[in-house]
Amino acid sequence: MSIPTNDQASVRTIQTSERPLGRDDLARLVAKDITPGSFVNLGIGQPTLVSNYLQPEQNVTLHTENGMLGMGPEATGDQIDGDLINAGKIPVTELPGASYFHHADSFAIMRGGHLDICVLGAFQVSATGDLANWHTGAPDAIPAVGGAMDLATGAKDVFVMMTLLTRDGASKLVETCTYPLTGIGCVTRVYTDKAVFLTGPDGVQVRETFGCTLEELQDMVPVPLRAASADGS
């Protein structure tokens, strides 16, 4: 598949790492991209790592759907309190000013448009930003939607963190999702071990690649790709 771009300089310079990114490097990148002062929810799985790399000067307030604002990094050692966990049941810390509230109030925050960003995992993301992350449709799979639909429709921006390829080598970034949808046209940015993608009604743009060129990335992904402009748009 050819790469629809006339910006050859972007194609040559889009690769920013000699190798694919690990989970922690990817979490560090996502944390860096979160706008200072944002209210953010981190989904279970890879997204929980983002809390470990947010800097105090960013003044980011983390929300967890089981009823907390002001969550800090993952707790370790003597910091661990069995009663203080995130939605993924991982022990976490609290920051000064943290607050706790009823589950219903937590979902009101999610559904009411009060979150600037949520970071979620995914089974598939479509070229236009559709999200499938709660069920593979397999007969023996256990559906686990949790608050994902509320987050996908309620947050102002939805970032996805995932590996680009399945264990069988198939791309999770697809033309059209084949798994049951969580949200339609909600994903604005996809962070993977091999690239950062910008998704939307105009198709998929690639902000940067890791361990591969844009041409090599195109061979992995069954949707047309083009290099994002210098300002990442």
Which features would summarize this protein structure in a list?
single chain; 233 residues; alpha/beta; eleven-stranded mixed sheet; three-stranded mixed sheet; 5 helices; 27% strand; globular; disordered N terminus; transferase; 3-oxoacid_CoA-transf_B; CoA_trans_fam_I; 3-oxoacid CoA-transferase subunit B; NagB/RpiA_transferase-like
Write the layout of secondary structure elements.
Elements: H1 8-13, E1 15-17, H2 23-33, E2 39-42, E3 61-64, E4 68-74, E5 92-100, H3 103-111, E6 117-120, E7 124-126, E8 131-132, H4 148-154, E9 157-161, E10 173-174, E11 187-191, E12 195-198, E13 204-210, H5 214-220, E14 225-227
Parallel strand pairs: 1-13, 2-3, 2-6, 6-9, 7-10, 9-11, 13-14
Antiparallel strand pairs: 3-4, 4-5, 7-8, 11-12, 12-13
Helix pairs in contact: 3-4
Arithmetic mean of pLDDT:
91
Query: Spans with pLDDT under 50 lasting ≥5 residues?
Result: 1-13
Beta-strand residue fraction = 25-35%
Helix fraction bin:
10-25%
Class inferred from helices and paired strands: alpha/beta
Spatial extent as radius of gyration: 18 Å
* Shape designation: globular
Order of helices and strands: HEHEEEEHEEEHEEEEEHE
Number of strands: 14
- Terminal CA distance reads 23 Å
Number of helices: 5
Main sheet overview = 11 strands, mixed
